[in-house]
Structure formats: structure tokens, C-alpha cells
């Protein structure tokens, strides 16, 4: 506790004395390095210089709080007194720094009553830089040390630090943006609070109109989104079930290749399938051209709209349903079905009366997952939607379109969020309720019965063509990058590849270099942060006991349900103004990657933690290892495969995402996915596909390497895992 | 025994401990005094709170009320890693990613024991449990019994003030269990280490422990040596949990100075003088306190009850009969001396009860 307080105070003090407090537009390099003048510079100076030379007295807490913390750590006072001092200086310093950040903005005082209180303010401040970020962070650690000293978190400073930091991070990067965004829904065009504004926009006919039923050209956006979601959810669940039954029960040799299908949506940007459909059914698609030249039938633009988006999403998300349902079907206890057949049920009866009802919770789960994925998808509707608007794309147009309307974007986000959270809660309730799968419990023997012949035929008839189509679609989509002009000239060429990735005279002159390098860099920065945060929070949530743990875990998981479009708009709203002025920087994209992917890392981390018997940590506790030592020496080594997997997954997901980051990129920070979508919208398919191919190849290589590493690790570890303990000991 | 591992033993005091999880009261006003160097058992059925009490001493649970003192020091404000209390887990909790030697050295490294001292102490601990030479193995390369010894070596290597054993024998097979419990006892005696042993198995507790606390529903029912508990159970629970007991309902009748117990609906048993009589008490006697009389034998000063044999179990050294008498069913052990001699199920039997061995007990 004392060490944590000492170090955090030292770090905070050093940052306040040496690091530039404000965001430096051109980096530290542009600072006037002549002598030590920069220490007193109004733009580059650290907190100390700002206070002493610039008269920015409100930054005084950045100096005083660490100094007081240091004093408390060094003075020979009893532990409770020291802890109280840590708590006080850390909390007060942090609070005052946050308060000044929001009180004094680019135009001086942010609200009139502050001016009345303190007098006029000539000064202004911009976003915080390294100093302004590090000092409060270190003060948060000081606060945590104080909490631990007061007996919270079993007196362990490490646990306290982890808990406080995660809580702060979630508050700043998830809760605050969403709250601010939703607040906008309640403001009118002038920015004043008006509850009526929300209801006015909510009642908008463009949202709820059912006109299409009566022959009008289109329905409301909400109905479009919901209809698409239900169709995609039902479709992917049915297709996924057919695949899962075949692979697990079908006595097929195709199991392994079919499982590979599940990798596709992980390594490909989601809109690739939309692109493939355009190349086949679009106006210059091969099928459309063939139809008009062979039969004289003009297929027209039917693919742009509900049919196209639906098809693309079915292709894109069926592998996800498949993945979920494989687990469910494998989890069925064969003994339950054997019991049915010993009671003289035919295979068909067993399937109908035992197997299918047991699968029901799994099916509902897969349906909801498909529903949520469809609602959150941005790439396919933007590429294929045409006049068929869904919430994700409408939000985008409300932000970047001709009639930029922040209030409308916020309101649409609110509706989308409500739908997504509704599905999320339903899904949680389903999975929280004891699933049928675990009823069989341990000691399950028995062989799963084969599928009834009729069911098997049906599954084969559905799944095999679909699998073939999916692969064909991917191949077609990707081959589009290697022909002259799709639809007119199918001469093979590397022209697009060269245009994208040309290197001439030692210079990267290709058009895509910039975005690909940015993507890889930002993904590489965010992946370790995501994995580390995921593992640490998984450890915290599964091992530490403290007030508010459930709420914090829930808040972290909740991010998973928030559609990317909503997150993107929210980030734009929250990080556009000081003190956290991140818009336009790579930092906002990294933050977006990290907090969008954190729940995935957290989930897999929690699953891995569940495999580690808590008595392994407890044993280290009784032998003298506190929270940090138990984590470092026992938990981390055992979690190594999970960490590796989390790292790769965070990287790959960062490379393929589009929905959130499309709001956050600038010319300097353009990402590859955004580059591709922009080319597609401009009809430059060849270039788009060339970049996509390189992106996919990169990720396949990454995944392969990881598989190799993790795979070998697993083999190496197999010998080291203790044999399962006989359960007899727990029986009284 | 190795001097490297010995230390002055400390006593343990549990004072007025109450612990609840929500509305469930797991421990109710538990008070215990465990003497320095004693081998002590918490014995009770599953759910009686014995493991919770152990984890409370280790620091993995927090009591709503009461204190735990080890060697006179109040442990309550300390986290597990500052308590100097060693624990062997039911699952052994050996770290699979470390060798045996690394496992044993862990606690010494955490205590910042000088490097030069760690090696000899690890070897001494491994020798103590008979595993010298296996330091470079991984836990998974050892048998269950060996893993258990590693767990024990890892704990005693740090010279804890108290050793806590959480059902340490339950994952071993029956034969190994008998061997290991004897070794445990020898090791404990050699190190004079205050040891608390949690078990639901009365035989384990009886064979290795100096004293036992019998627990039920979160409360300590009785504390005593194994013999005291068997011969003088404080209540019906203790009588029923240690050994087999016949518990018979009825009422107490007083006639001047003499008292008698009338079994519901039948026989009257005279009670030995000086037996404490409380309301609602029941009659308790062990199966071996009853003799099955051959037809026509003289009962002497014993009380004879007639009954019908309902079942029979062969136990090896004895034959156990279940006999229905008026108002109750009792178990009777008859010594088995060889031959096929036994009484038929369904037949009648006369029981002679030695009334000096009966007890009156309440719940």
C-alpha cells in the first residue's frame, strides 16, 4: 500500500514537472527546445510551468496533490492515517483536475455562473496532453492505494488499482460518450434541453411509417431494421442449425472443411460479401449481363435494397450461427437421446421430441445473435442498401450527410441502442437460465444417435449448396481485384494491385499504402492494450470481491451490445472538445478499438479463468503471495494461451471493423476498411478488392502464426496439467 | 525431524464467530481453543460450516462478528498473505506450470528468505515427506499420493504458525488413505505443528487427532478427545454422528429416588442412579450394549425386551441385526465367531439391555 502510494505520487509529480500538460498539435518535436524555455511555454509547458509562469492557478492541484501524497508516503505515520491521506490527496486532486478541465474550455469559463463566482476568465485551454493525462491517472492509483489501506479489496493495493483504473476507463470511454450522445437526443436544434425534441423526432414519420404496406415506396427506418434483423436472425439460425447437425451428427467427412467456414467472417471485413453480390447481381454483374445477353431479360437494380442486404448478411453471419450451434449440439447429452430410444422411440420421434426441444435455448440464442449482428452491420447496407435505409446507415447520413443533424443522429442511435440492448438482455436471460445442455452433467457416456434420414437429407440439401455459394461468392469477390474492368473486360491483370501497392524509387507511391500502414499500426497498438485490459479485468471479475463488482462487469459487457455506429457517433460527440480532445488523432481510433473489443477479450479471459481452480490462487495467498504476486506468478503463466488468442483476436477485429471508425477517421488516419468502402461507393471495385485481398492475406498469416504458436504451447502444456481430481472427495 | 522446519507452536483461539451469507447462517457463535502443538479436527457432515471455519482462519472468508487469534495475535484485519497460516487444499492446488521444487520454493521466495537458505529448506521439506529426488518433476508426473505430499511439503516449508488441512485424504484411495493418515500424524508430531484437520469421516478424525470439534448446522456441538465423544456424547447429534447409535423415543418416569425410561408403547428400562434427566430426552445405547439371548437363558440383572428380527447384515467381526421392538427399531451387534450360525430374519428374539450403559440425550 505504501509502495503503491509512493510510486504513484512520484510518477504524478514527475509528470507535472516535466511532461507537456496540453495536447501539442505537432508533437513534442515542435517544442522550442532552446534551453529550458519550453518548461514555461503556454503550449508546451508542464503543469509546473503553467502554474508558475502562465498564472494558470487552477492547475495547482496537479502539483500539490502528488507532493502531499509523497509526504504521506514518506512521513513515519501509522497505516490508517497514511491511507486516509492517500485517499484524500488522490481523490481531491483527481476531482479538482477533472473539474477544472470541464470548467475552463476553449472560450474561458464553460458556464456563466462560474464567471460570476470567480470573475472573468481571459485564458482558455485546449485538450490535455501527456501530462494532463498521466497526472490524473497516477492520482487514481494513489486513490486506490488509499482505498486498499482503508481495508477495501482485502487491503491489496494491486487489486484496488486494477479495479479503480478499469472503472475509470469504462466511465470515460464507454459510459460518458453514450450518456452525452443520448443527452443530445433531448436537445433541440439550438442545443437547449427540451424533452419535446426527443418525442418530436421519435414521432418522425421516416422512422415508423408503414406506408410500404399500402404501396408507398418505403417504410420507416425502424421497421426496415427490425424486419431485416428478424429475417437475418431466422435465416442464419436455420442455416447454422443445418450445418451444425451435419458436422456433429451427420457422419460426414466434410466436418473439418465446414468448420473452416467459421473462420471466414473473422478474417474478412463484413462488407466483402456485399461487394461479391454486386459483382454477380449488380448492373454489370455476371448474372445480370448473362441474363440480358442470353434471354434479353433486364434484371435491373433489384439487388440494391432489402434482397441484397438480406442475402449479404445471411452469407456473412451464417458462420457465426453455425459456430454457436456447433457448441450447442455437441453439448447435448447423448444419454438423454439413448434413453428415448430405449423407450422405443424411432430416430425421428427422438429427434422431434427430445433433440429439438433440447436445442431450443441454443436456437433462440443464435437467433438473437443474428438479429444483433444484422442491426449493427454497417458495411453491407452502405454498399447494397440503395433506397432501403436501416438505422446504422441513417445515423451515418445524419452525421455526414447534407443535412447534418446531431439531434436526429442521437435519436436514431437511441432507438438502435434500445433495440440492441433489448436483444442483449433477452439473450442474457436465456443463457443465464440453466441451459438444458448441462443437465446431463458429468460422467456422460454414450454415442450421439445419427440424424434421421429425412432430416439428414434436408440438411444436406440446404447446407452443401449454401457452403458452395459462400465459397464461390468469396472467390468471385476476390477475383474481381485481378481483372481489368468487371463486367466489360475480364482480362487478368495486376493493375489494381499495383495501383494500390506500388513501390517506385524506394517510395510507397501506391494509393493504399497509407491506409494499410495506418490500420496495421493502430491495430498493433490497440491489440496488446485490449488483451491486457481483457485479461486483467477477467481476473478482477472472477477473483476479487468488492462492492459494485457486478455493476462494473455488467457495464463492461454492455459495450458488446452497443452497435458500432452508435459508438462511433458517441465518440465523435464526446471527444471533440477539451479536456479530452481526441477527435482526429490516432488515439481516438485506438480507444475505439480497445473498448469495442474489450468485452470479447473479457469473455474469453473469464472462460479461461473458469478453468483455473481458485484454490491455485488461494494456495499462493496462504504462502505469502499478495494479489499482484498471485496474478503474476500463478494466473498469468496459466493464462498464456488465452492471452495469445486474445491478442490475435483483438488485432484481427481491429483490422476488419468499419462501423464505428468510419466516423472517427480523418485524411491522416484513414483506415483500410474505410478506404475500401469509399472505393466501392465510387464504383472502383478493382482497387477496393485488391486492398481487401491484401488485408485478408495479412490476417490469415497472422491467424496461422498464432495457431502455430498457441497450438505448440498447448501441446507443451498438456503434460503439465494436473490430472482431473476424483469427485469422490466432496461427497459427505 | 528436520530442525530447518521446526518452530515454536502457536495456539488458536476462535472467539464468538458468526458468519452468514445473506440469510444463510453458516457459523453460529463458534468458540474454540486449540492448544499449541495439538492435532485438532473439525468433524461434521457436509454443509456444517467446518470448511468455512477453516477458510475463515486462512483469511478467505470474513466473519460478521468475533475474532480469530493465533499465538495471541488477532488475525481478523490481516489478508491471507500476511497471516502465516499454512493450508493444504483438498485439490492440492499445485501449480502445473512449476516443477515440484519451484512449487515448494514459492512461499520461501514470497517471504524473501535468502537464496542460500531456500535450497536447503526445500530439500528438507521434500525429504520430510519422502519425495527427495523428485524436485525436477512436474506435478502432473506424480501420483495422487505424491501430489498430496508436495502440497504438504510446500506448506510446511514456510514454517507456518498453524497448518490447516482441508479434507486432505478425500482424493486418495482407501488403502493409501490409511497409510497417509499415519504419516500425517508422525509428521505433525515430529514438527510439533499446531494442525487443524477438516473431515467428514469420523474414522479419520478418531485415528489421527488429539481432540475433535463436532459441528452441525454452523455450531460446535461438542469438543473432546475421540473416546470422550464416543463414550459421553453431549447430545443426540454427536451420538449419531460418531459410531452407530440406537435412539429410542419414550418418557421418563420417576418413582422416588429411582428413575426409569418407558419406551413408547412398551418396555420400561430402569435408569442408572445419578443420570441427568432432561425433558424430551431420548434413550441412547450402542449396538454392542445389547445382547441377543438364546431362548430360555437367564437374563440376570439385565432387562429383557422381546422383538422381531427384520433384517441382518454380516459385518465380518460381528453380525448386525435389525430388530423391531414395541415402538422402535434397534440395531444389535452379535459377535461372529465362525460357522454359519445366525438367527433367521422374521424370527423372534429376546434382547438383554445392560441398563448401566444407556444414556438419556436431547437433540
TrEMBL record, chain A:
Similarity remark: Belongs to the binding-protein-dependent transport system permease family.
Keywords of this entry: Cell membrane, Membrane, Transmembrane, Transmembrane helix, Transport
Domain of life: Bacteria
Protein name, as recorded: Iron ABC transporter permease
GO CC annotations on file: plasma membrane
Domain ABC transmembrane type-1: 222-427, 516-706
Main location: membrane
PROSITE patterns: ABC_TM1
Organism for this UniProt entry: Roseomonas indoligenes
GO biological process: transmembrane transport
Transmembrane portions of the chain: 55-77, 84-106, 126-148, 160-183, 226-248, 260-282, 302-326, 382-400, 406-426, 458-477, 516-542, 554-574, 580-599, 642-665, 685-710
Amino acid at each position: 500500500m505504501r509502495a503503491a502510494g509512493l510510486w504513484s505520487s512520484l510518477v504524478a509529480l514527475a509528470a507535472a514537472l516535466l511532461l507537456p500538460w496540453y495536447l501539442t498539435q505537432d508533437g513534442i518535436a515542435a517544442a522550442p527546445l532552446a534551453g529550458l524555455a519550453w518548461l514555461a511555454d503556454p503550449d508546451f509547458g508542464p503543469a509546473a510551468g503553467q502554474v508558475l509562469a502562465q498564472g494558470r492557478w487552477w492547475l495547482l492541484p496537479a502539483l500539490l496533490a502528488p507532493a502531499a501524497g509523497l509526504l504521506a508516503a514518506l512521513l513515519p505515520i501509522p497505516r490508517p492515517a497514511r491511507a486516509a491521506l492517500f485517499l484524500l490527496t488522490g481523490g481531491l486532486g483527481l476531482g479538482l483536475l477533472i473539474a477544472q478541465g470541464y470548467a475552463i474550455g476553449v472560450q474561458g469559463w464553460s458556464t456563466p455562473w462560474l464567471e460570476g463566482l470567480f470573475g472573468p476568465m481571459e485564458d482558455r485551454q485546449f485538450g490535455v496532453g501527456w501530462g494532463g493525462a498521466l497526472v490524473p491517472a497516477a492520482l487514481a492509483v494513489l486513490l486506490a492505494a488509499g482505498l486498499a489501506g482503508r481495508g477495501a479489496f482485502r487491503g491489496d493495493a494491486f487489486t484496488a488499482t486494477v479495479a479503480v483504473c478499469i472503472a475509470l476507463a469504462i466511465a470515460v470511454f464507454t459510459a460518458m460518450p453514450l450518456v452525452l450522445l443520448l443527452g443530445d437526443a433531448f436537445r433541440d436544434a439550438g442545443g437547449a434541453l427540451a424533452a419535446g425534441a426527443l418525442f418530436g423526432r421519435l414521432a418522425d414519420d421516416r422512422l415508423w411509417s408503414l406506408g410500404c404496406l399500402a404501396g408507398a415506396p418505403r417504410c420507416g427506418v425502424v421497421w426496415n431494421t427490425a424486419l431485416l434483423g428478424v429475417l437475418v436472425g431466422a435465416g442464419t439460425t436455420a442455416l447454422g442449425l443445418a450445418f451444425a447437425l451435419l458436422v456433429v451428427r451427420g457422419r460426414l467427412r466434410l466436418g473439418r472443411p465446414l468448420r473452416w467456414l467459421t473462420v471466414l467472417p473473422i478474417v474478412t471485413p463484413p462488407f466483402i460479401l456485399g461487394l461479391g453480390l454486386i459483382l454477380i447481381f449488380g448492373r454489370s454483374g455476371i448474372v445480370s449481363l448473362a441474363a440480358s445477353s442470353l434471354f434479353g431479360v433486364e434484371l435491373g437494380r433489384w439487388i440494391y435494397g432489402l434482397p441484397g442486404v438480406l442475402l449479404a448478411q445471411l452469407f456473412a453471419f451464417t458462420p457465426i450461427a453455425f459456430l454457436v450451434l456447433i457448441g450447442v449440439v455437441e453439448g447435448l447429452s447423448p444419454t438423454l437421446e439413448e434413453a428415448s430410444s430405449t423407450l422405443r422411440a424411432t430416430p425421428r420421434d427422438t429427434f422431434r421430441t427430445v433433440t429439438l426441444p433440447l436445442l431450443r435455448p441454443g436456437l433462440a440464442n443464435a437467433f438473437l445473435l443474428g438479429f444483433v449482428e444484422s442491426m449493427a452491420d454497417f458495411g453491407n447496407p452502405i454498399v447494397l442498401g440503395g433506397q432501403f435505409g436501416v438505422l446504422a446507415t441513417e445515423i451515418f447520413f445524419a452525421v455526414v450527410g447534407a443535412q447534418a443533424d446531431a439531434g436526429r443522429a442521437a435519436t436514431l442511435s437511441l432507438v438502435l441502442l434500445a433495440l440492441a440492448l433489448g436483444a442483449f438482455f433477452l439473450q442474457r436471460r436465456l443463457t443465464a437460465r440453466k441451459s438444458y445442455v448441462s443437465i446431463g452433467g458429468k460422467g456422460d457416456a454414450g454415442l450421439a444417435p445419427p440424424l434421421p434420414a429425412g432430416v439428414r437429407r434436408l440438411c444436406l440439401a440446404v447446407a452443401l449448396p449454401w457452403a458452395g455459394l459462400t465459397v464461390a461468392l468469396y472467390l468471385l469477390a476476390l477475383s474481381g481485384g485481378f481483372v481489368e474492368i468487371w463486367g466489360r473486360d475480364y482480362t487478368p491483370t495486376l493493375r489494381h494491385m499495383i495501383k494500390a501497392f506500388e513501390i517506385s524509387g524506394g517510395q510507397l507511391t501506391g494509393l493504399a499504402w497509407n491506409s494499410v500502414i495506418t490500420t496495421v499500426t493502430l491495430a498493433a497498438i490497440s491489440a496488446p492494450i485490449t488483451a491486457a485490459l481483457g485479461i486483467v479485468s477477467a481476473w478482477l471479475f472472477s477473483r476479487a470481491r468488492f462492492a459494485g463488482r457486478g455493476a462494473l462487469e455488467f457495464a463492461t459487457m454492455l459495450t458488446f451490445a452497443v452497435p458500432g455506429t452508435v459508438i462511433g457517433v458517441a465518440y465523435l460527440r464526446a471527444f471533440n472538445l477539451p479536456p479530452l480532445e481526441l477527435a482526429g488523432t490516432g488515439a481516438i481510433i485506438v480507444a475505439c478499438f480497445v473498448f469495442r473489443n474489450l468485452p470479447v477479450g473479457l469473455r474469453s479471459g473469464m472462460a479461461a479463468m473458469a478453468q483455473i481452480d481458485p484454490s491455485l490462487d488461494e494456495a499462493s495467498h496462504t504462502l505469502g503471495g499478495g494479489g499482484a504476486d498471485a496474478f503474476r506468478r500463478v494466473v498469468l503463466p496459466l493464462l498464456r494461451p488465452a492471452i495469445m488468442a486474445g491478442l490475435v483476436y483483438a488485432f484481427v477485429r481491429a483490422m476488419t471493423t468499419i462501423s464505428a471508425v468510419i466516423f472517427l477517421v480523418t485524411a491522416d488516419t484513414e483506415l483500410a476498411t474505410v478506404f475500401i468502402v469509399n472505393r466501392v461507393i465510387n464504383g472502383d471495385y478493382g482497387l477496393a478488392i485488391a486492398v481487401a485481398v491484401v488485408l485478408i492475406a495479412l490476417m490469415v498469416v497472422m491467424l496461422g502464426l498464432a495457431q502455430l504458436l498457441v497450438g505448440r504451447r498447448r501441446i507443451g502444456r498438456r503434460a503439465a496439467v494436473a490430472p482431473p481430481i476424483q469427485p469422490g472427495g466432496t461427497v459427505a | 525431524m528436520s530442525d530447518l522446519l521446526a518452530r515454536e507452536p502457536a495456539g488458536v483461539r476462535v472467539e464468538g464467530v458468526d458468519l452468514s451469507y445473506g440469510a444463510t447462517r453458516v457459523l453460529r457463535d463458534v468458540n474454540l481453543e486449540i492448544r499449541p502443538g495439538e492435532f485438532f479436527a473439525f468433524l461434521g457432515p457436509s454443509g456444517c460450516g467446518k470448511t468455512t471455519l477453516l477458510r475463515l482462519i486462512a483469511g478467505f472468508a470474513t466473519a460478521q462478528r468475533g475474532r480469530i487469534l493465533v499465538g495471541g495475535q488477532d488475525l481478523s484485519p490481516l489478508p491471507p498473505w500476511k497471516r502465516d497460516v499454512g493450508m493444504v487444499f483438498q485439490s492440492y492446488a499445485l501449480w502445473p506450470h512449476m516443477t515440484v521444487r519451484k512449487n515448494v520454493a514459492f512461499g520461501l521466495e514470497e517471504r524473501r528468505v535468502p537464496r542460500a537458505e531456500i535450497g536447503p529448506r526445500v530439500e528438507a521439506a521434500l525429504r520430510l515427506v519422502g519425495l527427495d529426488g523428485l524436485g525436477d518433476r512436474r506435478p502432473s508426473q506424480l501420483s495422487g499420493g505424491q501430489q498430496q505430499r508436495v502440497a504438504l511439503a510446500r506448506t510446511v516449508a514456510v514454517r507456518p504458525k498453524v497448518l490447516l488441512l482441508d479434507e486432505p485424504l478425500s482424493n486418495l484411495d482407501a488403502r493409501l488413505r490409511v497409510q497417509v493418515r499415519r504419516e500425517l500424524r508422525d509428521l505433525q508430531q515430529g514438527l510439533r505443528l499446531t494442525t487443524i484437520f477438516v473431515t467428514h469421516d469420523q474414522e479419520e478424525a478418531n485415528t489421527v487427532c488429539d481432540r475433535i470439534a463436532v459441528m452441525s448446522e454452523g455450531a460446535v456441538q461438542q469438543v473432546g478427545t475421540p473416546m470422550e465423544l464416543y463414550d459421553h456424547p453431549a447430545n443426540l447429534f454427536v451420538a449419531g454422528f460418531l459410531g452407530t447409535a440406537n435412539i429410542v423415543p419414550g418418557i421418563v418416569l420417576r418413582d422416588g429416588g429411582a428413575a426409569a425410561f418407558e419406551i413408547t408403547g412398551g418396555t420400561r428400562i430402569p435408569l442408572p442412579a445419578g443420570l441427568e434427566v432432561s425433558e424430551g430426552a431420548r434413550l441412547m445405547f450402542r449396538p454392542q450394549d445389547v445382547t441377543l439371548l438364546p431362548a430360555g437363558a437367564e437374563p440376570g440383572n439385565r432387562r429383557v425386551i422381546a422383538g422381531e428380527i427384520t433384517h441382518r447384515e454380516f459385518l465380518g467381526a460381528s453380525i448386525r441385526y435389525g430388530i423391531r421392538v414395541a415402538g422402535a427399531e434397534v440395531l444389535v451387534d452379535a459377535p461372529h465367531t465362525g460357522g454359519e450360525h445366525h438367527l433367521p430374519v422374521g424370527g423372534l428374539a429376546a434382547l438383554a439391555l445392560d441398563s448401566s450403559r444407556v444414556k438419556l440425550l436431547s437433540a
